[in-house]
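Task 17 of the worksheet. Students: predict the tertiary structure of the chain below and write it out as structure tokens. Keep your answer in the requested format; marks are given for formatting as well as content.
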Amino acid sequence: MARVRAISEADPDSVRSDGPAPNSWLSEIAPYVGGAGRLNGAERVLKLSANENPMGPSPRATDAYRRAGDSLGAYPDGSASALRGAIASVHGIDPDRIVCGAGSDELIALLCQAYLAPGDEAVHSEFGFAMYRISTLAAGGRPVVAPETALTADVDALLAAVTPRTRLMFLANPNNPTGSYLPESEIRRLIAALPSRVLLVLDGAYAEYMREPDFIDGLKLVEDTDRLVCTRTFSKIHGLAALRLGWCYAPSRVVDTLNRVRGPFNVSAPAIAAGEAAIRDVDYAEACAIQNEVWREWLANELRRAGIETPRSWGNFLLPFFGQSGPTSASAADAFLRANGVIVRRMDSYGLPGHLRITVGASSDNVAVARALSEFMSEAELGKSLPGGASARP
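Model answer:
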């Protein structure tokens, strides 16, 4: 006790009441906030805020998950070899170039940890996934934003953002939250023009929803270059968001690096089992993609019919534009939907305050949100014609 007192008296800063200080750059991070799922006072809500698959996982994946419950006392296979083998078989790629993670979020964070030193830069498009910025800052790097054109990533702007400090570039294709995509020709042009020191991370979280002939998921391109990584997730088309499961396909040297920095058992055994069953059920994934495409186009047309500007999307969501002010603003539309038990995603944190992101849900959910927004627009128009712009509601 005397020894502790002596140290404290000699150096008052040696004992701090507020504990060790974290890295200073972490204060720049605004914590990621997921899509809300509850409303105060509401017993039932329509959650269309998180781009979840309304059909849920394949029944085969659910069965595999339940069977895994019989072995919860044992550590999982640290290399997820069965899952990597299934992914490789379905996609026709090399299992030794696959790394699995606790969602593609973890793999994005690991890439930043492995390739960014403090002060190094990572480029992403203007309306790219929020985790690119967060993971870059967490590693001590500096996020650099490249402007988009008409809510679409711009290859020339991405390349212009590259400096001698650039080490990573993140590009989601198709992109969340805009729903836009770049064709194969632009992806190839970007890869060819990037300096050899820059690793391009092509995020394909929504790639399984694509049906356009000029789209490329990038997996085969990984085998032609040493500076491309493709990430994928089981949270969207495969409906396994609760299990936090993702994977990436990468050059051998990147795989070796990721396996050095990831946790030894970063993917749970139930997730491995469910993921293997899900990836092999290609017919179910195709059914989910078709369901999404049919209802995405139906919902987009209904919103346009109601007078809401709705850009085309290639994901499992829409990004309608309402504006930032007035009776039909995004905030007013969001408040109206919440009053009717519907939760969508505000886009203020993405720099898109006039937009709402709406997940394409089950058929009944889509009908409900279309009717609600049609009523919202009708009431807003009627309110404009009333004295003083009063609400049409009593």
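Marker's comment: Confidence is low (pLDDT under 50) at residues 1-8, 390-394. The radius of gyration is 23 Å.
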